[in-house]
Design a protein that fits this description.
Elements (H helix, E strand, L loop, with lengths): L5 E5 L3 H12 L6 E5 L2 H10 L4 E5 L7 H11 L4 E6 L4 H9 L4 E4 L4 H12 L6
Parallel strand pairs: 1-2, 1-3, 3-4, 4-5
Helix pairs in contact: 2-3
């Protein structure tokens, strides 16, 4: 059992997933980064491994980000979640926070704040 934190990135926009992936790699921590283009594929990934942090788009094709989070959390109660949203609607934001999101970022994602939230949620000590 490795203690490498596992981050699951879920967004149907490939460029966002690639951006977050490469940004996370700049942290210099050992991270297991997995990505999925839909909630359904994310559930499959989450059934194969213990996910520590879910970074998900709020609006996904198929099941929503909040629904995905609830399903993964059943198996994995300590799951941390960061939502990414193109929607700043208050109701959506309240739903995400009510569901227990540690952070919500609008697109375009402020990368420094995003990395900060990732490190905080995983309890990583800044290496630089």
């Amino acid at each position: 059992m490795s203690s490498t934190p596992c981050i699951l990135l879920v967004d149907d926009q490939r460029d966002i997933v690639r951006l977050l992936h490469s940004t996370l790699q700049t942290l210099g921590h050992q991270l297991d980064i997995v990505d999925a283009p839909s909630g359904e594929e994310a559930l499959l990934e989450a059934s194969r491994r213990k996910v520590d942090l879910l970074v998900s788009d709020y609006l996904l094709p198929g099941i929503s980000g909040v629904e995905l989070m609830r399903k993964v959390r059943v198996r994995n109660p300590d799951l941390k979640i960061i939502f990414i949203s193109g929607m700043t609607e208050r109701k959506a934001r309240e739903e995400m926070l009510g569901a227990g999101a540690v952070a919500i970022f609008d697109k375009p994602i402020p990368l420094a704040d995003f990395l900060d939230a990732v490190e905080r949620s995983l309890g990583l000590v800044r290496t630089i």
